[in-house]
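Q: Could you write out the predicted structure for this multi-component system? I'm mainly interested in how the pieces pack against one another.
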Amino acid sequence: MLYFIYDYTFEGLLTAIFDIYNRKVFPDRIQGGHLPVPLFTETYTVVSDPEKADRVIEGLKKKISRQALHHLFICYLSEIENIEASLFRYIRKTLESPSGIEVNFADEDVLFLSKIYKKVQNEAERVKQFVRFQKTADGIYLAIMDPLYNVLPLCSDFFQDRYADQSWLVYDSRRNYGLFYDLRKTEVVHFDQPIRPLQTGKMEDEHLDESEIAFQRLWNDYLKAITIRERKNLRLQRQFMPKRFWKYLTEKQ
Amino acid sequence: MKLNLLLTEHSFIFACMNPQIFDKLKLLAEAAKFDVSCASSGTTRSNAQKGIGSAAGWGVCHSFTEDGRCVSLLKIMLTNYCIYDCGYCANRRSNDIPRTTFSVSEIIELTIEFYRRNYIEGLFLSSGIVRNADYTMERMARVAKDLRTIHRYNGYIHLKTIPGASRELIGEAGLYADRLSCNVELPSEQSLKFIAPDKDYQSIYRPMHYIQQGFLESKEEKKKFRQAPRFAPAGQSTQMIIGASPDDDNRILHLANAMYQRPAMRRVYYSGYIPVNTYDNRLPALTAPPLVRENRLYQADWLMRFYHFKVDEIVNEGHPNLDLDIDPKLAWALRNPQFFPVDVNTADYEMILRVPGIGTKSAQLIVASRRYGNLSSEHLRKMGIVMKRAKYFITCRELPLFTVQEVKPERIRELLTLPAKKKKDAEGLMLNF
């Protein structure tokens, strides 16, 4: 058994693929350094190298559209079990076919990755939908989320463009990092210690801006008022707004 | 930055000082709830000079109410006072209900504070008519203008236009709003005059025409000067009430089709009638809103807009109403078995679109993938095609034994409606015309 171990970044994965072609050895598995390796497994540690990664990208660009290339990155963000294998097979088929396989949805890997892409995109969309900022006493708009996939990188531009004149923090409690915007730029931040709101999704009242509770109440009242009772359909509501988001929703407390 | 801090500071004092705001919001949101449109799509606008907000191009639904409807916009009325007495409307003059009015600054504040918390994509402002059409329209346009110019707000704004409003005020509204709308309310003028005697089609079509003109003129201007102001870039929409009048689906869909021929018209909404004024015997007594019929109308609407169906193929004199048990695409296929089965490996995209069980996305996947090789039914299933319906209407690599040619249309109809319980619709139980 041969395992390629990489640093769990997209660049690292592309470097691994470069090394595979360069060394002409095919590993049984490519996996991130944080995962355990079974006993008696031969390992090769990939050293991330932007130049090597670029060469893989250049190769791919000749066969697939920029869009499809970006989709590969999005699939990578799914972090699902052994996504590396699917990505590697896709890239290999692409490089080895005369004109690419981008839209051949009869191919298992193409279809599989197109589905993963959709799932990750949907999750990013849901973060944009269901983030609820709470205004804190120091004027920062704070929201906590635990998306299934690592989608904050896909939401960063959206929030930065939209909320350009307010300081905000969107925190992924599952992966323990957040995006913080300080009116100039967006940065990645971590809480060193687990703070309570990370579990509950709620800030304690004493840390909130004085007007916050009033606006939360107004929002709840508003949603109740626009419901048409004659058309009640809770199943439909849950379908669009899955229960796992409810703990972060002001209106579902 | 300083200015902005001042504004938010001011706003919170305002909200706390005025406890009436809670009651007002409840009343004026309740009053606006029957407007269906909640679309926030159609405009892409990035944030200008570090103001607040953007429009994403596609809509974002931020919440869903218990009726399963998307909440994308803060949908409220400026006031629920009204000088009109329309039979289908809860805010009609003759109803004895609590009345209230938002001030312009209250609406602005609610919009911005909700927006900052990512509750909404923007504002949908409608209004009862006070004094006269222009007085009301002027107030509404001012909300939009202040949001854009004073508060540097770049989010979505949808304004209802008031029937009878002047060209100047609609022109003003269009400069600041993304979308303007004017509801035709009922599918025929005869029904409208009967139920809402204060209104006629002319008072509705005229503002629609102004919007269209403004939209087209601004498009022309834009060609000459890039900086020319945009006019309602997301176009206009309209809405009609279904099941409050005896108009059939043929009438409704032909009217919708005529609307879609207008260059700026983006959406026609169908709103199943919910009896709000049960004492008014010009309106039918329904036990439940005609939700199935409403759903079928939307499906038919989609067929016209995305599936290249002509309205006459969906409804006509011979088939004036949509079949409530099966969707209109399947109904068309069963009425026209001579076009099937379709070979997915060779047929035109247009024809694949017409197969029941294949949507626009699947049709695109099929057309893209078949260049690489013949598609089998297993491929189709994996791509997400609903084989339960599609199998009677297609051939592919190995399929099929029982297409619509072997199994008769009547039998397919039976097979496909069998497991689902027969749906009841309250439609047409009692019509007191």
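A: Regarding packing and overall arrangement: Residues 1-17, 426-433 of chain B have pLDDT under 50 and may be disordered.
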